[in-house]
From TrEMBL:
Catalyzes the oxidation of methanethiol, an organosulfur compound known to be produced in substantial amounts by gut bacteria. Selenium-binding protein which may be involved in the sensing of reactive xenobiotics in the cytoplasm. May be involved in intra-Golgi protein transport. One of its GO terms (biological process) is protein transport. Transmembrane segments: none annotated. Pathway: Organosulfur degradation. It is a peripheral membrane protein. This is Methanethiol oxidase. One of its GO terms (cellular component) is membrane. Belongs to the selenium-binding protein family. GO terms for molecular function: methanethiol oxidase activity; selenium binding. Keywords: Acetylation, Cytoplasm, Membrane, Nucleus, Oxidoreductase, Protein transport, Selenium, Transport. It holds the Pfam family SBP56. It comes from Accipiter nisus. Its main location: nucleus. Residues 1-23 have a biased composition (Polar residues).
Amino acid sequence: MQAGSSPSAAHQKVRSNPASSTEKCGACGPGFASPLDAMKGPREEIVYVPCIYRNTGRKKPDFLATVDVNPKSSDYCQVIHRLPMPNLGDELHHSGWNACSSCFGDATKKRNRLILPSFISSRIYVVDVGTDLRAPRLFKVVNSEDVFWKCSLGYPHTSHCLGSGEIMISTLGDPAGSGKGGFILLDGETFEIKGNWEKGDKIPPMGYDFWYQPRHNVLISTEWGIPKCLGYGFDPNDLKKGCYGRRLNVWDWTTHTYVQAIDVGEDAAPLEIRFLHNPDAAEGYVGCTISSAIHRFYKTEQGDWAAEKVIQVPSKKVEGWLLPDMPGFITDILISLDDRFLYFSNWLHGDIRQYDISDTRKPKLVGQVFLGGSITKGGPVTVCRDEELQSQPDPFFIKGKRVPGGPQMIQLSLDGKRLYVTTSLYSAWDRQFYPNLIKDGSVMLQLDVDTEQGGLTVNESFLVDFGKEPDGPCLAHEIRYPGGDCTSDIWV
């Protein structure tokens, strides 16, 4: 797909393909035949959320929470199960599956193990969710020593299953905390480390997230920063020193070799990357945190890859903050399964945004809601100049609770009508930017989405308060559905 083209035609091709019908598949594997089939999937009833105690002052292990999100349930908005990890200080972060829609045609595969890499300890936990969806149990621990010795990598982040049945995990660095953008490969049956996915001598200087698209023989990874720099908090003195990433790194999917770097700007810190879900589409978006920009990446007519900035969130001139200019700090993005809407969170400014991407080169803002953040009225920060707002937003209250922090991780329901939000980014940065988040705990919220015209409204009856946990307030991060979702599943 070339620059400026629309995904709709290719999506219609997927829709009309007889093989995409689950009814005609017989005994199918996990997930859904196509993104549009996934939109017809069942409504989410429970979600899994990693909850973190590292850097909170509470000597408790991180745990995986199972949260009831079924409005017909008596346990609605309650944590119904907690699976504590066997170690302290892991910093659970993101999670992925042993099998997803990339394995749809393989009836021998089941989505029954959740992969939980630990960002700081470099352990990898494998959780059994197949025996009891509502009460996961620990299945296996991959020790950090194995990660270090077998791959010479550390600080694992994103986990994706592959159509081969293997599991691939990106990393930020080497065992010493220097930057290194490599990938760990796990066996999909034994969960033993098989080694590195990448081949050849060329390796990016940093890593973070990734997405792959076999139809275009490509994997693209991103760069947050050097672990030993960002691990203890955000130091403005690290800017201009090359501590934060600036590239999208392009890999040849077949040969596993690093073939191209796309520069998106000094200290941009590109984090979450999403291809359009339609597997024929050769384009997608990446959110750059520090530069607070959304770049569209795409395959060129020459066959290589390029990027163009399509959204810029203006910084705000402020007093009473770390720097005189406060970026929006885009920390998570996602695309609806029909490739119609792009969503992202501004963790510092405090808003969630919805863009219509029918024209992928010209996203149109159609929904926005403020859920806290650093610029609310009555706080320590005074906004002196603002290109977007007439006044500072009001503090955000729900069910009588003032929500600390800002919107961070997001997850969309399969049908696109509900957007779930949590408020913790990373414990060391939470402690620095939002001390009350450490004291009061994070929350999970839910927004109702207008999928016709666009628009976001807060569901005032939905609040999961992780400040009320039995072992004390904790930090809730990424959200996963048992049946897969738009940030875990890849169609091939």
